[in-house]
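Researcher: Next entry: 3-oxoacyl-[acyl-carrier-protein] synthase 2 (Methylorubrum aminovorans).
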Amino acid sequence: MAEPRSSSTHDAQGRPLVAVTGLGIVTSLGRGVTENWDALTAGRSGIRAISRFPIEGLRTRIAGTVDFLDTDPLVAPLLSERFAMVAAEEAVTQAGIGAGFPGGLFVAVPPVEMEWPQRQALAEAAGEPGEVSYAGLQRAAATRRFDAWHDLFIFGTVADRIADRFGTRGSPISLSTACSSGATAIQLGVEAIRRGEMEAALCIGTDGSVNPESLIRFSLLSALSTQNDPPEAASKPFSKNRDGFVMGEGAAALVLESAESARARGAKILGYVLGCGEKGDGFHRTRSSPDGAPVIAAMRAALDDAGIGPDQIDHVNAHGTSTPENDKMEALGCSAVFGERIAGLPISSNKSMIGHTLTAAGAIEAVVSLLTIREGRIPPTINYALPDPALLLDVVGTARDTRVSRVLSNSFGFGGQNTCLVLGDEPA
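Model: Predicted structure:
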């Protein structure tokens, strides 16, 4: 039997091609595709001293905060919802779909838990200055002062409100797979379209978790940079003097459609999601396997899913967190996948400018990857002044103009949750 061949609507495996028809993004660099792309390619940083809460006594006092979209109260669920709404509005508008989104919703959101100010309010209402007991919670709940917090701090509320706003079909899916979450949301949308369950999917990654508790928890793990001055120089992926990541926040949204559906309605196709690869790693709760085997497997799975070889990748949008261990592990993995070619394959990390946007990172970096393909320009990895001689990579230190047809976008999360995407300008 003859091998299947790709067409304008199906890939070589006979699956519906997944086209991207809408993009939306919010980061500390600005609101929307234009503001973010201009800043990224200019090498501007959105990392600054935190002004949202007191920072005295903290080892890390900087972050890539989105300070131009405020909420009350300033809590992760509301911030995440606000960022997601703005990004989704831009993406859906660009796609030209109109009212009533014709597909499902997949939203990557941070794990939701009550934050310190709210826990303190509960403790005061319960008359228990320390840890609130179950009986104390019952007494506080009886006052009915906190009824609104029920919806605010329940996992899935953000997705429910987005679904109501855009009229997506079916039950909205909320997911949290650590730092790979945004890429996982895209993967779920791709797989649903390929299975024929829907013709379109709205895929979002969002995170508004820059708060004192998150900052302190990551600090206790020694994961954050303590190079606070100047803030914009702290995130330095693949540099010898890197010392940790910088927290960031924001959101990105992608409208995915079957290529057949997009063409039938005359939509402009901005690119394709050609492949998705996922691999779990049970090595440690936060650390990745030092041999890089799971991330190597995830990258190779994405290439295999796209039906292409390593030689057909033009650029790697790295996970590139700026932590000593992650950057070393990613470099090791890329060397295994691409061989000697890695020394001349352009690699860059957007986190050098916007910080690590955690749950949103995979989606934000997918949007940047598609813009890189469309514009033929690779954003730089800023602060790359002192290369690590142990990492034999072609790190893009200043924006590079070059033809880019296919990008491998890496997302590696705590707990060994690794997801890689292959994005392209045309079918494989």
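Model: Note for the record: The longest strand covers residues 18-27.
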